Amino acid sequence: MATDASNLIGMPQLAAVRVMSKGSTTKMLTLGTLGIAMAEHSGRQAKNNTPAFGRVGLLAVTAHELVLVSMAGAITLKPKDVVARVPRSAVIAMEVGGGVASTRVVVLFADGTAWAVEVPKNTAKHARAVAAELGFA
Fold first, then answer.
1. CB atoms within 10 A of CB 65
2. What is the pLDDT of residues 58-72, one digit of tens each?
């Protein structure tokens, strides 16, 4: 498992992955298979609504929520602040894959928004664990 932010979140995290900001110039996402699912669901593409979390963050799953945490530190990064909390019931899909130098992670929400982040290729297994915990293995 990635960094443990359970104390900051206020409940045990079940899975987590360190994430990096995706290219901030993208406002509308082409989501591959999620784009198809979203089109079927609402007739439009998902809008990128990823909260600003700094250079590195942590995407963690608890029993009830998906939580985005900012990380801070000069040498060793540690959880700093909770940036966003979303009920697990609001997550309708999660895709892990794609990208050359890093792995793309997209979380799609019932309101038509999405969070798009990247993870280093060597930690993609943690992103897949988050997806599996959310029921999107």
1. 20
2. 999 999 999 999 988
